[in-house]
## 1
Amino acid sequence: MRLRLTPRDTTYFDLFTELAGHIVTGTGLLAELLGADRVERKAIADRFVEAEHAADDAAHAITKRLNQTFVTPFDRDDIYALANALDDVVDAMEEACDLIVLYKLAELPARVSAVVQVLQRCAELTAEAMPRLRTMEELSSYWVEIHRLENQADKLHRQLVAELFDNATDAIALIKLKEVVDVLEEACDGFERVATLVETIALKES
Amino acid sequence: MRLRLTPRDTTYFDLFTELAGHIVTGTGLLAELLGADRVERKAIADRFVEAEHAADDAAHAITKRLNQTFVTPFDRDDIYALANALDDVVDAMEEACDLIVLYKLAELPARVSAVVQVLQRCAELTAEAMPRLRTMEELSSYWVEIHRLENQADKLHRQLVAELFDNATDAIALIKLKEVVDVLEEACDGFERVATLVETIALKES
Amino acid sequence: MRLRLTPRDTTYFDLFTELAGHIVTGTGLLAELLGADRVERKAIADRFVEAEHAADDAAHAITKRLNQTFVTPFDRDDIYALANALDDVVDAMEEACDLIVLYKLAELPARVSAVVQVLQRCAELTAEAMPRLRTMEELSSYWVEIHRLENQADKLHRQLVAELFDNATDAIALIKLKEVVDVLEEACDGFERVATLVETIALKES
């Protein structure tokens, strides 16, 4: 535990909460995209890009603040790493949206929706956890649940990939679908990295 | 060189040695997997998962210790980075095992076994080097040899990929094999990152 | 702003400038490679490997210096990260050269040349910016322009990928081309990471 010379700067918590809120919006749009037809998809992907820009702005505000202030509520490097880790989740999801549109994918296997539901739950839990960084209390239930969800998503991903290859007749269609599925798995790994960072920060502060 | 206020904490060396030991077990299982038929593979992959869990536990013990102690035998960030780098090697190898089972691969080209032999040698050298972190002596022969082995694996990998494409008739089979081969190359790069970290640590301490 | 006990060490700036110079050479060779026939390509790729070794030597000189000196012109971790980020750009470009030769690619789509032209411009801007790290002046025009170029390359990349899939009849040919195109995009992302690091360093020092 470090000595604190000034009151904790609360703005970081607000910015992290805001950033995580844009991720919740993003996972909602991703779920919407899966149910949409090809015509509607473009508009949904555009809304995702807006959410991504808002998330970028929040991440950038964190970094800027970090470079201009001496006193931070917890380790500078951890703040920087947490902002980046949240940003990586947004980027992976944005890539998934973009690929679904770009590849003009016809219909996605049902298990893809199951993976996106796990992502939605991860996003909600993450957004609920961010304000709790202020007191560092009740965070362990969050990271335990994220690890459980990541495990579940990992199993779904392996089943999905096996399914894709078992049913594959068109290699080009397979390449497209596999890339989307792998990027969704990256997003899920990203949520786990965020949770691991939160765990590390909480341990240091305890 | 930094002043040391208390005796060096030896447990880190023990934990790194233990972690590297699980990697030796893992590369052995990977070699076994290549020689096994599809029925035996599942059981070998399950034993790999056990080795991976043991490695995770050792890495987690290092991180936990790091977050709870003030005095570390060398730079905190380097300890953290080294634990992570060793963990990444395990993860890459686990992914290779998993893909071989998941993709129900028939037979793997002979050069794949050559790559795995290089991985086995890297694992042994790494496990032998870990206890030497205590005195920081006789480490240069280790990292020089790892760089040489990584170069050798890189050449094998390029030959393998060229061979896969030259002989490819079935694109779906190619995708499967290429993914396995690329993940094995990642594992090899991982050993090199571990060696580079050890080199950095040794230079700082000298 | 930190107190400075001794004059700034200028050698880091020289080494960064040298390293970026090798990247300029590399992007030039990459452009040459695209215009060459299969016979000439091998010789050009070999010259790229020479440029890569020279870049590695400069990066290694930076790391070595860092591990042996107390006083650095800016944050140690940032120097290390910047050297690594520049090295990653070289590695991505080397991989692109290598794949073009290894895959015996016939002809590359015109948009690939457009991407490489963006990389050449990024390399020139980066090389011009490195000496300006000394005074930290006139750097913002550099990172603003790199972000703009990365955006442009990203759009080109998405068009290229869509084009590859729309025209694809041979899945194996598609896999080869897509890998080259993705690695070029990685190189471009690498330039952006360099610019973001420079921005972070400049903000800290201001």
## 2
Amino acid sequence: MRATTIHSPYDIRVEHVPDASVRQPGDAVVQVLRACVCGTDLWAYRGESARQPGQRLGHEFLGTVTDIGPEVTSLRPGDLVIAPLSWSDGSCVYCTEDLPSACPNGGIWGAVGSDGGQGEAVRVPYADSTLVQLPADAASDDRLLNALLTLADVLGTGYHAALSAGARPGASVAVVGDGAVGLCAVMAARMLGAENIVILGRHPARLELAQKFGATAAVTERGDAAVEAVRELTGGHGVHASIEAAGTAEARNTAIAATRPGGAVGWVGAPHGSPLDTAMLFIRSITLRGGIAPVRAHIPTLLPRILDGTIDPSPVFDGTVALDAIADAYQAMNTRTSLKVLITP
Amino acid sequence: MRATTIHSPYDIRVEHVPDASVRQPGDAVVQVLRACVCGTDLWAYRGESARQPGQRLGHEFLGTVTDIGPEVTSLRPGDLVIAPLSWSDGSCVYCTEDLPSACPNGGIWGAVGSDGGQGEAVRVPYADSTLVQLPADAASDDRLLNALLTLADVLGTGYHAALSAGARPGASVAVVGDGAVGLCAVMAARMLGAENIVILGRHPARLELAQKFGATAAVTERGDAAVEAVRELTGGHGVHASIEAAGTAEARNTAIAATRPGGAVGWVGAPHGSPLDTAMLFIRSITLRGGIAPVRAHIPTLLPRILDGTIDPSPVFDGTVALDAIADAYQAMNTRTSLKVLITP
């Protein structure tokens, strides 16, 4: 089969690799219908996160089950399924506490020795607990498939950020970052009942999408000026809930500074760069909550909202390329020409 | 009147200063019956926190109201009262949200221009909202007075740390630091229903007191070895709730590393030294919550527990000196000869 690999920074290839196959009794094989490129994939692309030469890429995909191991009980070949960004055993203490991201038997697609989502097929460990079945008729609905694909990462991660920050009715919310996670966080904050949602970003098309998703104000300044603007929008206080959805030191400290005393910062951007402003956290009694999103745990909440039309995150995708041209997708996202690119094998 | 001042590191004096008096209509004057020295006072003592020459010291005191301004309605001269570590207006949005530590009209005793608790009397702004009345008959009960004095800071701060960390029935708790705040955090964690409480410290008398307050295990190692020991005590996982009650970088990172995925660190030690281990926080989805304790907000919860005998924090005091000898108290605490020293004017 064909799959995306990385050999060195900016050297993305589509290569022939061994076919995905059942190796453990709980495995399933999923033929990928749709995958996409994540902002965190760009860290590998740019060499900011180390990868071994030839390592697979991609942790977002949905597709059709083509084979199952003898212990798989809830899925059958032909089922349409979504995979969250990591597999998990479903039975450990962390999985039962809705923190599958801490599963000791878990892992993220594309880790050494595993298949990546940006390929023709994926071997899925612990298929019963990892995969979530989708309605069969979704397969013929392009918009719906796109929306469902966001359950793999960006929607679940944005939702986790909004939950972690304490977005709720009556709370003011700031979202730092206008990438796909930030936009999904806006949507999630709205879904959680927040009425005043400020997006911090600079890209006009993304800010427009943020507004469509529920943002009530946009702040295009950066750094101290952005913090000042958020405070002005909130009677001088800052927001109850800040969402850091960029993963940079500047975004983190902007999120902290834009939060009012007693508020919380939800962070889902992996730590990059210089340290947190801990003095500000301490003096203002601001809670820091989040981390790698337990996306699998949020699918049962989010899937019904997509299916019933309450939310439609599909517009986060603004481009599609075939698997063989995936290097173009990386380039377009790296230059911020595209927000998030779909891959069709 | 006499009051404690600091002129440079290690230069603690008791000097004649202008008498505390009513200056604003909401002020009260409190004649100090008991004060004490806090671990954070030692930062000023050692020159780690800047002070202006002649600045007052002490933020923990209880005493008797001797004068009130015309707008004070809930107190009368003769009332026995406890003051929390900071004054607050009781009417701002933060005070009404139980976060008086963020009151824009608030301040900490000993700040430039205010009286300190380590003196004969203190002018108390916003007396109605700042002070809490105590039963008159407590004045004749030495043990009870000592216990009540802990409401000024260490008990409320330890309780805030335990709450922030999520101490609760079924949760395992680690307390990093065997100072008075750490010991009070042990007591608070127990009060909140935690059954497994590990104290991390090295001082035998303090560990004994921790056990008396509810600790079920003690870890005397430091750094990685301490983390390993906590994990061994918790089935390899780490604790649900870690309390950082020392204010050092090492204590903070030990608290983080000793916490299990999805757990929380309650921090009440002001940030000192090198940065937080944010990667560990992120990867393990650990919440960081706390900050300057809103001690005033916790008095209504804690005072009745002291009065009905549910808790008795009075043993955190292991020495008493007269105001004129307060330099000895600083020295004894700085050398860890004393845990916490009472001051009687």
## 3
Amino acid sequence: MMSSTTSGRTAPQRRNLKELSEAESLRRLASVPFGRIVFTRHALPAIRPVNHVVVDGRIVLRSGSGTIISAEVASWDAVVAYEADELDAGRRLGWSVVVTGVARLVADPEEAARLRELVHPWVEGEMDQVISIRPEFVTGFELVP
Amino acid sequence: MMSSTTSGRTAPQRRNLKELSEAESLRRLASVPFGRIVFTRHALPAIRPVNHVVVDGRIVLRSGSGTIISAEVASWDAVVAYEADELDAGRRLGWSVVVTGVARLVADPEEAARLRELVHPWVEGEMDQVISIRPEFVTGFELVP
């Protein structure tokens, strides 16, 4: 994957951080199929990778009723962070986006059914719950030479 | 990157989660150059990508005194989570590891100098602080067919 960049073996260059606009951050988040939901569990910081889609400006994911995400996030309107990135360690280039917002279980059956069709779980198991995160704060950066 | 797997376009298969042992989780964490530190900021969940090395069973990273990580994590012994993964969205395979533990600023000048030589920051700026996370809980999973 990085054969063209790891040859030569010069000292790795340090990069600058360029802030991304909110619109560009959401565009990049929508361009990738998975990210990481960040929440609090037993008063400790917790994180789980999960696949998502962005629909009408909201991050949509699926969960099962027996999962940690269901217990800690979907069962009440938890404030969560959601992070996605594409980082190339060989070239030290890429981007990361962090969204902070309230995660809500989609209760309306028709809305839940519509969104379920758009998110295809990667893992086996009952994944009937649909969780929607409305972005309140959106930040992103890009590594630039 | 995924040209061999996206041809064919059959319906994507769902995977099972296989738990990784603590030793295997730490081995995988040490095999990758970056992860994401998860902490609390203004009572909200927060996350930042950062590059790391694993030294003597601890996760070691560098930070600058003006950064958010410095203010929220290094200035007191914060409990953090640290996540790293290698996930291939095309094949729906890969792994993720989450470590929870106390993050401490390495205060001893000789120890800090030794560790600074092992972690090379990706971004420009003063990155004199060395932060060490001692794993208390280690979990990991692998996506398997």
## 4
Amino acid sequence: MVRPLSALDLARRIEGGEITPADVVARCAEAIAAGDATIGAFAALDLAGAEARAKADGAALAKTPLRGLPVGVKDIFETADLPTGYGSPIYAGYRPATDAALVCMIRRAGGLLLGKTVTTQFAFMDAGATRNPHDPAHTPGGSSSGSAAAVAAGMVAVAVGTQTGGSMVRPGAFCGVAAYKPSYRLLPMVGCKTFSWSLDTAGLFAAGIADVAYAAAALTGRDLRVDRAAPAAPRIGLARPHIWPQASPAMRAAVERAARLAEAAGASVREVALPPVFEDAFRAHGVVQDYEAYRALAHEYDTHRDRLGPRLREHLGAAASITPEAYDDARRIAKRARHALADLMGEVDVLLTPSAPGAAPRGLESTGQSTFNRLWTLMGTPCINVPGLIDDSGLPLGVQIVGRFGRDRAALEAALFVERTIASSPGA
Amino acid sequence: MVRPLSALDLARRIEGGEITPADVVARCAEAIAAGDATIGAFAALDLAGAEARAKADGAALAKTPLRGLPVGVKDIFETADLPTGYGSPIYAGYRPATDAALVCMIRRAGGLLLGKTVTTQFAFMDAGATRNPHDPAHTPGGSSSGSAAAVAAGMVAVAVGTQTGGSMVRPGAFCGVAAYKPSYRLLPMVGCKTFSWSLDTAGLFAAGIADVAYAAAALTGRDLRVDRAAPAAPRIGLARPHIWPQASPAMRAAVERAARLAEAAGASVREVALPPVFEDAFRAHGVVQDYEAYRALAHEYDTHRDRLGPRLREHLGAAASITPEAYDDARRIAKRARHALADLMGEVDVLLTPSAPGAAPRGLESTGQSTFNRLWTLMGTPCINVPGLIDDSGLPLGVQIVGRFGRDRAALEAALFVERTIASSPGA
């Protein structure tokens, strides 16, 4: 089931006239026909529309930044032409009047919207039906479950997800693909269902780091591509946060192996001590998230409570009692931690840390834990899952590169450096 | 046409059992029947629903924080029970599936949604049909035109608006009511049509400062009321930005008069010099706003361009060429200016500056200029229009109090101090 498509490679071949956007759509359609009954990555599909568009406008699309590549979008982004369900029975079949800003940007850049990908309910923890392409008995992670799985299974070249806790980096790690959560608000959130307005961040999945950087550059017009020259050797800080013992032995070994490989390839690697405010910030994440979610999902909680997933319902009920003072405190802690992180990163380009506690857990009830992601989401910094390592059972183990706020290109370049050292190591 | 209702006074009388929520709804219904054919404050009304609710639940509502007071909401906030048109023919009669977070918060606090108030198209500069209650030949200001006019005309006790440039403080000044734009994101924007995600800020209109503070406290559960003790004498910085010459002689005199009155009443008043970065920040506002608007309104621009107002269409067309680099530069300037403002305000509690270039201009084609508001919106600080002064023709002249970020209560208290000194001065 696992055969991700390199967006960059496809784009180059389309640019060179070797293949057409219609060929790529056909290939994705085949992968969907072969696998999606098992994987369940899509909540809604528009294969016919994408095929028609690729055939009619193929030559024009081939000249656009995204070159007519097929894109999947997490089903918490509103689309006027496809239903938008937010993963919830409350909105089954709902048709908003408007496309989300990011959906319009995909179109402006020449991408083809192939479908909406499965999300957990309102991007929280009540799982959808998606399975992990590496082993359908395992979760693909969440909340951007369908986007990560669709890319891993070669059903789309690029997919959009969001992260509020760990909803990009974790499913990217579990599905063995590159996940890029940019600096806060680099990609617009207009028309995306809000869970926490201070934290929700749109991001991209693609096969590898160069692919996800290519897609980000094409969508935004920013200088984010990293495929045009060999990446410079980065200064890496190996970060073992206070929750390090919660990582599995395999994950701890994976991070340490990635560090050794990078060092052997010329990167400077040093252990960095995270200051104590980060432990407070780790807790502050939940306060900020939940205070905002109780307001952002007020309509659903107040008028459709019995149709919410049990985890979300219980969580919002508890969130009702968070005071404005506790929320303001949490935001102040976050601000202090951001300053501390900026200081810490004066001496390194990026941090290297686990993407998740381990490989994808067995079972579909839980999408796994965002333990190793929440703090960085609160910091608003770019976070990237670097794929390439596996555990003893053959499941992917992702390591995470955390960059400096606004220095997304440097983070992508460092992630590419690590990805390449892993790929060229014996037994990768 | 001008007889604003004091929300605080009504709330006290409801609490004391003198009047009921139904009495207040009836009074608002009378004002609407008498005046709205001329004023045109409402885009949609639910008087029958509010009356029924006030009659059925009056006793319970009287115990809520907002005590069943009638509220008007700018028609860029989504409502499931009332049409949401965003001031645009594209969305005439549109019914979203969801209530905006702030609409739910009004309901949670015990407010009654009386109707949706007229906004300019997508809260930009293409005017709606609302007239100024002080003189229907004059604009009420915009973009929160209907909300300011409805409060001034006693059609609601409280109204919600938003500000991206000067869309709260200016119509508050033109209509002679209190307008409170809180610190950025104190009130949630979820379910509000986005123009610029970095700038759009929800706020409240009410008759006077104590009323708007009462409503803000009731809605948020924050300690924002200022009516329980006499306000302390503030340290005021009289701010004449580089655009000061663009203020009318009457406006310049009004600000200077407010400063003298406050000083005579015990406030410390000093001239403050705004650092040069503020001139850059003034220009940066437009870059940030327009770059984001071209993305936030992508669906409307890309698929309904010919149905956009001419000003917005032209503006978005020009915005298309703003580069990510120019946007990032503008955001860096804004950040520097915020630091400079925090330094400046180490020595004063608030700034005193014009709310608008002058009184409401004659005519309905233009809603006036946001010249004296944009900079402060970019700073994210609380901004309050203090009503009470008039020009020679009897039209209101508003002066503006700008507070420190997150110190909303202090800003409201200072605004109340200034309002009281104006009200108790000879010839006010």
